[in-house]
Design a protein that fits this description.
The protein has 1022 residues and is mainly beta. Helices cover 6% and strands 46% of the residues.
């Protein structure tokens, strides 16, 4: 279930800075000393964008010391002996100073926020805070640095950008689900995904997909256009996330979209880019002659191991045709199916926006279209989006606004995961290279249990259309000086329409066609109120109080239909099927929340805050619905102490500490605690019901306790700055489905039966290496480690293909459970495994845990260079020490099943052939199961990598040139993505994973790699 929405007002710097220690709630007037008063000036100082008063802003008559200060309404009075006109200088921390020529007795002055100061403002739960006063652990990402990376969803663009946030793009198919973990994983069966909040709306990030695509799932985050995003803030520790209560255990991703400015001249921005992408490399397969040679060896070896098979050299499959064979190995052709499947994919992106505002209205209108072909045919991803953000200043005290996002996303989806039927890569990769795609009559046919690739590509019809609306309506009211009320109503609506048709020429459609249709509608709505009070007392004390509540509901309805047996392949609608079936489902959950927070700041040196949130969820037992999530944090800005205040080396130094508890309820059923009955179980023609789910009235919130210690340091006037954090997370009452004996009539039930810990560190550093002569070179580097451990789990759980993943108490989540291969016997060519229990035979009891998907460390490195109008950005992502199971290679070396289809990889050529050979590839054999035992550690590989994620080169034309033709700005650029990869992994991509199931990660099977791409683009501002 979602959490409450953020109460901040996007794009409002006065509100961003109003909550800081500079807020003054008393009128302070400076009385100029002058023998004669020739002019009295009344005025008001406001934020240029929001029109909110800038309390404490100063006004000085230029060249004098005569001035004044704005009161709680931004108003000031100046009395002077000077005669009009004269010039005043207006300034406020975080804003650009402004000189104004005063010609009359009344003036209104707007100040524009300073871009550098804005970058130091952090968005937190229900508000903003100046970064120097931040207690919690969070990171800001500028989307302009990442939006050019051609992937379907914005979360995939963030890889390597945030310390402690591990992101893996498990496939090269655009728009598919991305694995993102903020400080590890806290649950086995519940969700480990972070909460996404878009302009205060808690959006659904769970896939609505029902069509089987080999374990893959689409990404709902792909419905958001990255070009509409102003900033992204990732909240990580409990102090930062506790106000979000439920699901705060997995971190919070706050997405703020673009808004206009009050008093801004209408500005048009156009961005267009186009390019292409392709696979950096493909699998190295045997040729037809090589494959035939290996098949002959396999045939002879199996005959030696089992003479009853009567397989000898004389009756080997590939012998002269005159002898009844298929022809000699060297006579075989090589059929290249990979080249038929893979292509050079076309990439297109177009964005157009209008931004501006009057003195009381501001707006942002944006439209975008993104089209990406996958590198495998016929998969495509298209997104059309329309964005409208509107804010209206009703009067000095009231502002209302609305955010609207409309998106249509279309996918021609692929079965790019596990399973042979309809599997694109399986049809290309696991079919012997010597097998012709046509039979003796010249007809296209499938072989070795897989679809004929040509038939599959020509008849592939798996389509999805997502219609999405994300909207939020708010009203802000300044009730009293320092006291603000906000109310909002948000909604996330998604209509997800899927269809597939498999005709009679394909395995899934045999013998007379098969079709499905599914329409899912998911709606999240929430209503929220917050009341905020900020007060400054004297020059040293300031505090704030926040209280609020949220009401939220999630609704899912789904209608599904399928049909089998069509008259012929021209009929594709389910109504034409001879046999049909259908179903309808409905599900709902609600959440009621109350929360509060108090913060105190003494002299900018000592900071403390405390918060608590109470969440009541309909998903839990009748006496367990409410969860309470407190947090407390403190910080010491040592730089403000007298002994460091004048230190010229240390620009800032702050120590932080926090503790808190967050909750999780996402990933379980909406009625998980209830006993359920189902209809549709008629008996002898009469309607009937039957038990569906065993209830658990004691089911309660999963809770994660987290402690964080951090330090922030800036040196040499901010030329060097770094942040370091160490944390410990402990999850109790872990939500888990426990198995039940079949005699009970139920398979499993939900319980709180697991405990998991995560411990780690994060380090990020930013440096300005060169800044002179028009040349600037800056570097950003981050590194993190997370150590995960299952602390309590009564019964081990197995996941993934062939139970390759084992969850067991005392070990990390997602650990690989394999037979450990020691060597290949040089005398026999047979594999020798470690006999763990020393019983002289290799059985399941000898499987052991060898590594996991968790890297020992991971992070990113960015270098940015600018010189005059030129800019270059290089971004690297890396991880080290994790494992990945190369299941593709297992099937490519698999010893001869399906007419020796599984010895198709060229790595088989290094096999043992005669006594004395030293190799780790055994002899081709179909009898000795140890030689190609599924789950052998030979295919468990090092998944470490360093990837050049993107390189961007741009040039911005000088304003002296563009202004002559009425253009504010013009930039041309080129982007290369995934241009270089350093890894020991023998597959195509060390991030590949066949399944979107979090418990089956790290198994590479039938998955296209992330492509190498090159794009060119132009950005135009009018």
């Amino acid at each position: 279930m979602k959490k409450a929405l953020s109460g901040h007002r996007s794009g409002a710097p006065a509100w961003l800075l109003w909550g800081l220690s500079l807020l003054i709630s008393v009128v302070v007037q400076a009385q100029p000393i002058a023998p004669t008063i020739n002019a009295t000036i009344n005025g008001r100082i406001t934020d240029q964008r929001t029109k909110e008063p800038l309390i404490g802003a100063t006004v000085l008559i230029k060249g004098t010391t005569n001035g004044g200060t704005a009161d709680t309404k931004g108003r000031f009075v100046l009395k002077t002996g000077q005669k009009l006109p004269f010039t005043v200088v207006v300034s406020f921390i975080g804003y650009q100073s402004k000189e104004v020529v005063v010609e009359g007795s009344t003036i209104n002055i707007d100040l524009a926020a300073d871009a550098k100061q804005l970058s130091e403002v952090a968005v937190v739960g229900y508000g903003t805070i100046e970064r120097k006063n931040l207690i919690g652990s969070l990171n800001k990402i500028d989307p302009s640095d990442t939006k050019v990376i051609p992937v379907g969803s914005v979360d995939a663009q963030l890889q390597g950008k945030v310390p402690g946030v591990q992101i893996s793009s498990a496939t090269g198919v655009p728009g598919e689900r991305v694995n993102i973990r903020v400080r590890g994983a806290t649950s086995i069966n519940a969700s480990n995904d972070p909460l996404y909040v878009v302009d205060g709306v808690f959006i659904n990030n769970n896939s609505l997909q029902t069509i089987g695509t080999g374990g893959k799932a689409t990404s709902p985050i792909a419905d958001i256009n990255p070009s509409d995003i102003e900033r992204i803030d990732v909240l990580k520790d409990a102090e930062a996330t506790a106000l979000y209560g439920s699901r705060g255990a997995n971190g919070v991703v706050l997405i703020t979209t673009k808004r206009g400015n009050f008093g801004q001249k209408p500005t048009i921005n156009v961005n267009a880019s186009a390019g292409a992408a392709k696979a950096a490399k493909l699998w190295d397969l045997t040729t037809g002659p090589e494959h035939a040679t290996l098949v002959n060896e396999w045939w002879i070896n199996t005959g030696k191991d089992d003479p009853t098979l009567k397989r000898t050299f004389e009756n080997r499959p590939f012998r002269p045709v005159a002898e009844g064979g298929r022809g000699l190995p060297e006579e075989q052709q090589t059929y290249d199916r990979l080249s038929e499947l893979f292509r050079t994919a076309q990439l297109r992106n177009y964005d157009l926006s209008l931004t501006g505002g009057t003195q009381t209205t501001k707006y942002y209108i944006g439209g975008g279209y993104n089209s990406q072909e996958a590198i495998i045919k016929p998969v495509t991803f298209n997104r059309a989006s329309f964005k409208v953000n509107l804010d209206q200043q009703v009067n000095d005290n009231i502002q209302v606004g609305v955010s609207n996002t409309f998106t249509r996303t279309y996918r021609n989806q692929a079965r790019a995961g596990d399973g042979p039927a309809g599997g694109l890569l399986q049809a290309a990769l696991h079919t012997p290279t010597y097998l012709s795609p046509v039979n003796e009559q010249g007809v296209l046919v499938g072989r070795a249990g897989f679809d004929n690739l040509t038939l599959l590509l020509n008849n592939y019809a798996v389509n999805t259309t997502s219609l999405r609306y994300i909207g939020n309506l708010y009203a802000d009211a300044q009730l009293l000086p320092g006291l603000k009320f906000r109310t909002s109503f948000g909604i996330d609506y998604n209509n997800y329409n899927e269809s597939e048709y498999w005709n009679s020429l394909l395995i899934s459609g045999s013998p007379n066609g098969f079709a499905t249709s599914s329409v899912s509608q998911y709606t999240t709505w929430l209503n929220e109120q917050t009341l905020t009070y900020r007060k400054r007392i004297g020059s040293s004390h300031s505090f704030g109080v926040l209280v609020g509540n949220t009401l939220q509901s999630d609704n899912l309805t789904r209608t599904y239909a399928e049909g089998r047996g069509f008259p012929n392949n021209s009929f594709t609608q389910i109504s034409s099927a001879s046999t049909t079936a259908s179903s309808q489902n409905w599900s709902k959950s609600t959440l009621a929340s109350f929360f509060g927070k108090v913060d105190y700041n003494f002299a900018g040196k000592y900071l403390i805050d405390a918060s608590v949130r109470a969440d009541g969820s309909s998903r839990f037992g009748s006496s367990r619905k409410w969860g309470y999530f407190p947090s407390v944090g403190a910080a010491w800005r040592i730089k403000q102490e007298d002994f460091l205040r004048n230190n010229t080396i240390i620009s800032d130094l702050k120590l932080r500490a926090s503790w808190g508890i967050t909750g999780n309820q996402n990933g379980i059923g909406n009625f998980a605690a209830q006993g359920l009955w189902m209809g549709g179980t008629g008996y002898q023609g009469n309607p009937g019901i039957s038990p569906q789910q065993l209830g658990n009235p004691d089911l309660q919130w999963e809770r994660t306790r987290q402690v964080n210690l951090g330090v922030d340091v800036s040196l040499l006037n901010d030329r060097i700055s770094f942040e370091a954090n160490v944390y410990s997370k402990y999850t109790s009452n872990g939500l888990l489905q426990l198995a039940l004996p079949g005699t009970t009539g139920f398979n499993n039930y939900w319980s709180n039966a697991a405990e998991i810990s995560n411990k780690g560190f994060e380090f990020g550093i930013n440096t300005v290496n060169i800044q002179r002569g028009g040349l600037t070179w800056s570097t950003s580097f981050n590194i993190a480690q997370n150590v995960n451990r299952i602390e309590k789990l009564a019964t081990p759980l197995r996941y993934g293909s062939r139970d390759l993943i084992l969850q067991q108490q005392g070990t990390p989540l997602y650990s690989f459970w394999v037979y450990k291969q020691l060597y290949v016997d040089p005398q026999t060519g047979n594999v020798v495994y470690e006999d763990v229990n020393k019983d002289g035979q290799i059985t399941v009891a000898d499987r052991q845990l060898v590594g996991s998907i968790w890297p020992k460390f991971f992070g990113g490195l960015t270098n940015t260079l600018t010189y005059r109008g030129f800019d270059v950005n290089l971004f690297f992502a890396y991880q080290y020490g994790n494992k990945i199971y190369n299941h593709n290679k297992f099937f490519g070396e698999g010893g001869g099943a399906r007419d020796a289809a599984r010895i198709i990889f060229a790595s088989n050529l290094a096999r043992w052939q005669k006594p004395g050979d030293i190799t780790d590839v055994p002899r081709p054999d179909g009898i000795n199961v140890n030689n190609y035992r599924d789950g052998g550690s030979r295919w468990l590989e090092d998944g470490s990598f360093v990837r050049l994620k993107s390189i961007t080169i741009g040039y911005t034309l000088p304003k002296s040139v563009t202004s002559k033709v009425g253009i504010q700005g013009l930039r041309v650029y080129a982007v290369g993505t995934n241009l270089w990869l350093l890894t020991k992994y023998t597959g195509l991509d060390p991030e590949s994973s066949a399944s979107s199931d979090p418990n089956s990660q790290g198994i590479d099977l039938g998955t296209p790699p992330q492509p190498v791409g090159l794009q060119g683009g132009i950005s135009l501002t009018l």
